[in-house]
Amino acid sequence: MLKPTVIAIPIFALLIGLEAWYSHRRHANAYETRDAWTNIFVGFMSVAFGALFGIFVAVIYNAAYELAPYKFPAEAWWTWAILFFVDDFAYYWFHRISHEMRLFWNFHVVHHSSEHYNLSVAVRQSWFSGILHWVFYAPIMLLGFAPWMFALMHGFNLIYQFWIHTKFIRNLGPLEHVLNTPSHHRVHHGVNNPYLDKNYAGVLIIWDKLFGSFVPETEEPRYGIIKPIKSFNPLWINTHGWAEMWQAMRSQKGVLRKLRCIFGSPNMELNEPRSESRAAA
């Protein structure tokens, strides 16, 4: 089964091209050529690596589903309604932990390391996140949702998040109270306070409001990470977080302090280069 996000690639490409053209025509400087092409290449490679890791993840999801004491009927509309909320809730916590724990941040920093904000940034995703992201989603199969149902719903969740990576849609009125919008997600990519580590929503912004991580857009965000990597090398973009974590571990004495470099917050004050390289939330 092809993922919805893979099927949507031609649409993504078209919209990126249209936004780049519009930005150029308006002299908006939303795109930088090298950055945009890097984003696109990183995105294509993330799809390739995702297919590879997908074999491993599918085994885990199917095993979890077999253990479920109850199986939700795919033909019932309410099954899909429940799955929508369950998946979006799981995404919120996956995304939040990806900012609060260094181990997961090393994957997610790829997405945040661009200093620009446009539709091409949406496809700038880690090549290796498939190694661990299943930890947050396998419980959905244990609840009784078939893996193919989850793949479909989660795919549409991610497709929704594509269009919010734009500067050109400012405010959506009443929808801002319920949905994750371009305005809310610009905050999420902002490195300046009070935007750092806020607005983790996938589709529904209600999770951020419920768990205290919501901040409205009040000033122009500064995009990227606190210590820019200043590189368009796709391999370095995907590995620099791991290199910094390794350096941090080497600088620490004692097992517990070394483990904190892995499982602690990326904002920990340690004598390490990483202490400045924490990204924009």
Helix and strand topology:
Layout: H1 4-7, H2 9-26, H3 33-67, H4 77-100, H5 102-112, H6 119-122, H7 134-142, H8 147-162, H9 182-188, H10 206-210, H11 234-251, H12 255-263
Number of helices: 12
Content-based structural category: mainly alpha
Helix content: 55-70%
Overall number of strands: 0
Distance between the termini: 33 Å
**Low-confidence runs:** 271-281
Sheet with most strands: none
- Average pLDDT level: 93
| Percentage of residues in DSSP E strands | under 5%
Q: What is the number of domains?
A: 1
Rg over CA atoms: 19 Å
Q: What is the approximate shape?
A: globular
Helix-strand sequence: HHHHHHHHHHHH
What does this structure look like?
The chain has helices at residues 4-7, 9-26, 33-67, 77-100, 102-112, 119-122, 134-142, 147-162, 182-188, 206-210, 234-251, 255-263. With 281 residues, the protein is mainly α. The protein has one domain (4-276). The two termini are 33 Å apart.
List keywords for this structure.
single chain; 281 residues; mainly alpha; 12 helices
Short synopsis of the structure:
By secondary structure, the chain is mostly helical. The protein contains 12 helices and no strands.
